[in-house]
Design a protein that fits this description.
mainly beta; 1 helix; about 50% strand
């Protein structure tokens, strides 16, 4: 059974940076597209970035484009979300998800990480 374990996150000041990690166990992450999602307080969950199996293709929501970078290291069975120039509106719970189909991973996933809190505040 595939498990996704997230790490990183926490508190950052506006303009700061954080990196999230999503490590898979029990299966080869290279067989899955990976998406990152967030849920802000009082709002619905939104997809913010996704990456194809090889890492060749990526897609970003307009709200994070140019500030966040999704990547993966299949040798380490891990995907990442580098978040730069953080804004208070980036505050929320962040989730990674894996889906056998890249395009599906931009919207949903068969497997989900446990979620991690990101708070951007001065």
């Amino acid at each position: 059974q595939l498990h996704l374990v997230q790490s990183g996150g926490g508190l950052a000041q506006p303009g700061g940076s954080l990196r999230l990690s999503c490590e898979a166990s029990g299966i080869t992450l290279a067989q899955y597209g990976v998406g990152w999602f967030r849920q802000a307080p009082g709002k619905e969950r939104e997809g913010i970035a996704c990456i194809s199996h090889s890492g060749h293709d990526t897609n970003y929501a307009d709200s994070v484009k140019g500030r966040f970078t999704i990547s993966r290291d299949n040798a380490k069975n891990t995907a990442y979300l580098q978040m730069d120039n953080l804004k208070p509106e980036d505050t929320g719970i962040y989730y990674c998800a894996a889906d056998p189909t890249y395009l599906n991973s931009c919207f949903d996933g068969d497997y989900w990480g446990q979620g991690t809190q990101v708070t951007v505040s001065s």
